[in-house]
Design a protein that fits this description.
Blueprint (H helix, E strand, L loop, with lengths): L10 E3 L5 E3 L13 H13 L4 H8 L3 H14 L9 H5 L2
Length: 92
């Protein structure tokens, strides 16, 4: 897949030693958000692959929405991003 050169790094190494590229991010304009895609966006922002502003504009998110994903991912991992478990986790 050809990726247009953009600002920031093309590849980052995550804390677990794996590498993440822009190709690992969901496509721009994604509207169906499953936990795996949310986690990829959070990992991309936290690792410096994309900026928060770029993620917000690329995926048409609000800052509050992204911050809630980041908080749930840090507390509960990918399971915290599943909408079916959201009420259970927020009750904690």
């Amino acid at each position: 897949m050809y990726l247009k050169k953009g600002p920031g790094p093309r590849v980052v190494t995550l804390p677990d030693g794996t590498q993440m590229t822009r190709a690992d991010l969901p496509p721009p304009g994604t509207t169906r958000w499953v936990a795996r895609r949310k986690a990829a966006v959070v990992r991309g922002v936290e690792s410096g692959l994309i900026t928060l502003d770029e993620a917000i504009s690329r995926y048409d998110l609000s800052e509050e929405e992204y911050l809630s994903w980041a908080e749930m991912a840090s507390r509960y991992g990918t399971d915290g991003l599943k909408t079916t478990l959201l009420q259970q986790f927020r009750a904690d």
